């Protein structure tokens, strides 16, 4: 017998299971950090966490301070004080009051997404070429890259007061100015020193170091230790994609 989602949720509550944060109660002052997977969302969460909290964030507490709706329970997120900064990979949702949507070149996304899936055992013993074909067809979690991105970009044109879009590449080129632009949109007023401290604490070198220091006690403990979650942060598609793959992905997404 197939149980409909709402009944599943009720059953979980009755049995005291952890209800995923995607069922949280949306507040009018919530700020959502949204992206297609592997597009810079975790980096953005670290930037916010290292700015908003005096003791910063690490992979030990990132999910409780700047919660992930897939890893943090509804109860935990609902217990946070406002304004909350929350991570999501969901497609366009008109209910969200304030959204920072970050998106990245799909040629780099497909590479990063492949390694993420291997690290978290979403796929096993699958070649990159096989994963590439699935990505092109949208046969991966969260579907086709272009559908996800275009949905949010179209909405941002209609509701610029609610949705700010920024590319991963723009944020990487000048992280201070990019983050300052995001903070202005979120109506957060911080001085230059605090912002720069958050930027420095959220560098890829610092995040990579933090991953190694915390992996035994964080959510990385049960993942493949031979694959880093924080890899290089650099564009790799020119050296990783074959000519055939490059032609396919360029044609698919009109690059």
Structure explained in plain terms:
The chain is an alpha/beta fold and 255 residues long. The protein has a domain at 27-107 and 141-230: P-loop containing nucleotide triphosphate hydrolases (Rossmann fold), CATH 3.40.50.300. It is built from 13 helices and 4 strands. It has a 4-stranded parallel β-sheet with strand order 2-1-3-4, sandwiched between helices. Helix 2 packs across helix 10. The N and C termini lie far apart (45 Å). Residues 1-17 have low confidence and may be disordered. Pfam families: Sulfotransfer_1. Belongs to the sulfotransferase 1 family. This is Sulfotransferase domain-containing protein.
List the helices and strands and how they pair.
Layout: H1 5-14, E1 31-34, H2 41-52, H3 62-65, H4 74-78, E2 85-88, E3 99-103, H5 106-119, H6 128-137, H7 145-158, E4 163-167, H8 168-173, H9 175-185, H10 192-201, H11 204-214, H12 237-240, H13 243-253
Parallel strand pairs: 1-2, 1-3, 3-4
DSSP summary, beta strand count: 4
CATH class of the domain at 27-107 and 141-230: Alpha Beta
Specify the CATH homologous superfamily of the domain at 27-107 and 141-230: P-loop containing nucleotide triphosphate hydrolases
Q: For the largest beta sheet, what order do the strands appear in spatially? A: 2-1-3-4
Which segments are poorly predicted (pLDDT under 50) over 5 or more consecutive residues? 1-17
The shape, in one word, is globular
Work out the helicity level.
40-55%
How would a textbook summarize the main sheet? 4 strands, parallel
Q: Under CATH, the topology of the domain at 27-107 and 141-230 is which?
A: Rossmann fold
Distance between the termini: 45 Å
CATH architecture label name of the domain at 27-107 and 141-230: 3-Layer(aba) Sandwich
> Helical segment tally?
13
Strand content: 5-15%
Rg is 18 Å
SS-derived structural category: alpha/beta
| Element pattern in H and E | HEHHHEEHHHEHHHHHH
In quaternary terms, these chains amount to: single chain
Q: What number is the mean pLDDT?
A: 89
């Amino acid at each position: 017998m197939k149980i409909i989602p709402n009944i599943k949720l009720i059953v979980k509550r009755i049995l005291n299971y952890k209800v995923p944060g995607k069922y949280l109660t949306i507040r009018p002052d919530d700020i959502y950090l949204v992206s297609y997977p592997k597009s810079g969302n975790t980096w953005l969460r670290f930037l916010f966490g290292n700015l908003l909290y005096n003791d910063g964030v690490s992979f030990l507490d990132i999910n409780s301070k700047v919660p992930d709706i897939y890893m943090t329970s509804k109860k935990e997120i609902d217990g946070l004080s406002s304004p909350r900064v929350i991570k999501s990979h969901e497609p366009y949702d008109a209910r969200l009051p304030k959204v920072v949507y970050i998106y990245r070149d799909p040629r780099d996304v497909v590479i990063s997404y492949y390694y993420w899936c291997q690290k978290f055992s979403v796929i096993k013993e699958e070649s990159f070429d096989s994963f590439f074909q699935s990505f092109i067809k949208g046969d991966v979690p969260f579907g086709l890259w272009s559908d996800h991105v275009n949905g949010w970009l179209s909405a941002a044109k209609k509701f610029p007061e609610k949705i700010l879009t920024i590319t991963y590449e723009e944020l990487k080129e000048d992280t201070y100015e990019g983050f300052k632009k995001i903070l202005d949109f979120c109506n957060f007023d911080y001085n230059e020193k605090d912002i720069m401290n958050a930027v420095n604490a959220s560098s890829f070198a610092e995040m990579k170091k933090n991953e190694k220091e915390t992996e035994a006690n964080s959510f990385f403990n049960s993942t493949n230790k031979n694959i880093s979650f924080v890899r290089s942060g650099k564009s790799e598609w020119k050296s990783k994609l074959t000519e055939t793959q490059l032609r396919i992905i360029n044609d698919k997404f009109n690059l």
